[in-house]
Amino acid sequence: MKNLSFKNKLFVSYTALILFFSVLSIVFVNLYITKILKEHFVQMGRSLSSTVASNITNDLLINDLLSIDAFFEDVKRNNHDVAYIFLEKDGKVVIHTFQEGFPKKLLNLGHTENKTDYVFINSDGKTYYDFSAPVLEGRAGTLRLGMSGSMISSMVNNTVKTLLTVAFVSMLASIIFAIFISRKLTKPLILLTESSMKISEGDYSKNVTISGKDEVAKLSHAFNKMAETVSIREKALKETNEELEEYGIKLHEYVEKLNKTRDELIKSKQDSAMVATSRALLHHLRQPLTYLLMAIELFADDIHKGTDKNEILMKAKVIEKAGENVSEILNKFEKLKEFKTVQYSDETRITDIEEQPESLTDKLL
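Structure (tokenized):
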């Protein structure tokens, strides 16, 4: 049952329910008819035995056994269910209708004396109802009439056959009706399932149209409304994603522009620092170089004039001192080679002069 579809489950359940009630009806009707037929049969047997006992009274009084025998045979011919008739008195059989001798086992079956009753017996695989009726209140004996129960069995069997035929036809009609009902009930569910599959694939165009005011129609209406709401939300979400993508592209462009502006700014700072360094270098070299130039010119004049040796040596020391000053300034400038290099994106290497412990101008002072 777990692997069956809802339509097949509904069909199997409906068919099983019909089969169950059909069998239950047959059993119930069989029991009821058997009971009714048995009561009718017993009532008929009591009435017939009492009637026969009453009709043979006059013949018994005159001891006309031939008339009684003829009457018994006539009763058997007119009532096919009557198997035998006999008359007993004081434990002896007066007259009977058995062709092959009287079976003694029919005596002493436990009938109530002087009352009309019956006993249910089985003989040779057959069922009999043995009725007893007193004749002249028992003074003339007791009439015993045996009726075969085959009539009840035959009528019950015929009734059961009829019921089975009716049940079979009803079951076929019910199966056809079950197929129609199962398709009628499951068709909306199938449509809902197909629409759900379409929605899972992103197609919201297929609506489920079910007429009526029952729960399935209400479900289809709610489903269509839900699909429409989901479609609107997904469309809005898609538009939002597209806007976010556009904003992302613009943001990326802005970042690139900012990086470019930053690089240009850093380069501008580098150029400014180099200009300031060059100016500071020129400024601090101008005075020592001027002194050095003047000292060299005076030293050259003294050599040409033949100035005193001591004076020439003194001027030579001045030139040496000026040279040392120039050398010191150049040494400080050479130390500026120890700069810091910063690694940026896109493999851009920037030399940041302002991040040195001291500015270039201070080093030259």
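The CA atoms of residues 37 and 152 lie 6 Å apart. Strands lie at 82-89, 92-96, 117-123, 126-134, 142-148, 341-343, 349-351.
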